[in-house]
Design goal:
The structure holds 2 protein chains of 2 kinds. Chain A contains 3 helices and 9 strands; from the N terminus they run αααβββββββββ. Chain A is an alpha+beta fold. Chain A has a domain of 95 residues: Sandwich (Immunoglobulin-like), CATH 2.60.40.2470. In chain A, the strands form 2 sheets. In chain A, strands 1, 3, 5, 6, 8 and 9 form a 6-stranded mixed beta sheet that branches. Chain A has a 3-stranded antiparallel beta sheet with strand order 2-4-7, with no helix packed on it. Chain B has a single domain, classed as Immunoglobulins (Immunoglobulin-like), CATH 2.60.40. Chain B is mainly β. In chain B, a hairpin with a 2-residue loop joins strand 3 and strand 4. The chains are: A alpha+beta, B mainly beta. At the A-B interface, strand 4, strand 6 and strand 7 of A face strand 3, strand 4 and strand 5 of B.
C-alpha cells in the first residue's frame, strides 16, 4: 500500500514534468486515481484505493442537509476527531460514480473538510476516514434530494 | 485562463480556517447536449494547498463536485500574515493558482 502510494506520487512528478514541457497532456493526470472515481459502490472505491474493510465509527462525522432542495449543490462536510487520519473521502452512494472527493490529510491540516457535491437522487452519503494504521472508519447520513443535479 | 479563485483565511487561535471558492464549470460527463450527445466530463481533478510555501493538503476530486466548487479546510499553526496558496488542475490540464494572506 505504501509503495503504491509512492509509485503514484512519482508518476505524478513525471507526469507534471511532461505536462510542463507541453508533451502528452492526456497523461498529465497519472496520479488521478481513475479507478476509484469510476467505482460504483463504497467497497469498490475502497478496493481501488487499496484500503481494507470499513467499520462504522462514532468518531467520524458526516454533515449535510436532511433535505436538499437542489441536488446540484449539496453542502457536505467530513471530519474525524481521531488523530492519524491519512485520507478523508466523501461518497454519495447512488451517484453514477460514488466517490466525490479524496482529501489527503497531512499533519498541518485538520481532518475536517467541507465542500459541495452534486447528487442525482436521494441517497446515503458517506464520510470515510482511512487511518495511518490501515483502519477504515465511516459514518453515513441520508440526504433527500427534491431536484436531482446530475441529469440535464 | 480561468477566472480567479476567492480565498479567505481566517485565523482563530493557532488555526486558520480557509475557505476557497473556485470558478469552474465542473461538467459531470453525464449530461447530454441538444443533439443528444454526451457532454464530456470537465472537472477539477487535483487541488493542492500550501501554507507559506509548504504543501499542507492535496485532494483529488471527481466530476460530482458542484459547479464553482467550494472548499473549506483548517490549517494548524497558521498566524495572521501567513500566505495560503491554492492550486487546482482540471482534467484538460488547465491550472490556476491563487494566494491569500491570513487575517
Amino acid at each position: 500500500m505504501q509503495t503504491r502510494r509512492k509509485t503514484l506520487k512519482q508518476s505524478a512528478v513525471v507526469a507534471g514534468l511532461l505536462a510542463a514541457s507541453g508533451m502528452f497532456p492526456q497523461y498529465a493526470f497519472a496520479a488521478f486515481n481513475k479507478a476509484a472515481f469510476d467505482a460504483k459502490t463504497l467497497p469498490e472505491v475502497l478496493k481501488a484505493l487499496g484500503a481494507g474493510a470499513p467499520v462504522e465509527s462514532k468518531d467520524v462525522t458526516i454533515g449535510g442537509p436532511d433535505i436538499a432542495e437542489n441536488g446540484a449543490v449539496v453542502p457536505l462536510t467530513a471530519s474525524t476527531s481521531l488523530p492519524g487520519a491519512k485520507q478523508m473521502l466523501i461518497l454519495v452512494e447512488k451517484n453514477p460514480s460514488a466517490l466525490i472527493a479524496v482529501f489527503n490529510v497531512t499533519d498541518s491540516v485538520e481532518a475536517n473538510f467541507a465542500t459541495r457535491a452534486k447528487m442525482g437522487q436521494s441517497s446515503d452519503v458517506y464520510a470515510v476516514a482511512i487511518m495511518a494504521d490501515g483502519k477504515v472508519l465511516f459514518a453515513k447520513k441520508e440526504v433527500k434530494v427534491t431536484l436531482g443535479g446530475c441529469g440535464g | 485562463m480561468a477566472d480567479p479563485m476567492r480565498i479567505r483565511a481566517q485565523v482563530a487561535g493557532d488555526k486558520a480556517t480557509v475557505r476557497v471558492l473556485m470558478a469552474h464549470e465542473m461538467e459531470s460527463g453525464q449530461r447530454k447536449d441538444a443533439a443528444g450527445k454526451l457532454v464530456p466530463a470537465w472537472h477539477i481533478a487535483e487541488v493542492t494547498a500550501t501554507h507559506n510555501g509548504k504543501p499542507v493538503l492535496t485532494a483529488e476530486w471527481g466530476p460530482a463536485v458542484s459547479k464553482n466548487p467550494f472548499l473549506q479546510f483548517v490549517v494548524k499553526g497558521a498566524k495572521a500574515g501567513d500566505k495560503i496558496a491554492v492550486t487546482w488542475k482540471d482534467n484538460k490540464g488547465d491550472t490556476r493558482t491563487d494566494e491569500a494572506t491570513a487575517s
